[in-house]
Design brief:
With about 130 residues, the chain is mainly alpha-helical. Helices cover about 50% and strands about 0% of the residues. The chain has helices spanning about 30-50, 60-80, 80-105. The longest helix has 26 residues, at about 80-105.
Amino acid sequence: MGLSSFNPFASSTPSPSSPKPSSDGAFIAPDRTSRAKCYEARDAFFQCLDKNGILDAIKDEDKARKECGDVEKVFGRECAGSWVTYFKQRRVMEWKKQQTLNKIEAEGGWVPEGAATPAASQPQMPK
């Protein structure tokens, strides 16, 4: 076995959240049911993060896995890997956006209607 054929990162099986290729090689987009399952798994994971005071599941990966590992596994299984990363990053971005809008309002500034993120989708972080 030569070094050129050795790849310690290769996997013989695709990850469970990998999109499936179609007959022409393009990837098949998730259907409505798959997306709904993904969103439900995402919401359950984010509720667990909120309950445990974790905002950034990427930066605080160890704590997130310790407190919400089982729920995170379901999230990873139900959503494409790129979606998982996107949702985790968007969660932090939305929280920062809301903090900035709150600061602008507190200082007497004007926030355009519709600029605020709905409260239901905001991480509930302790102050």
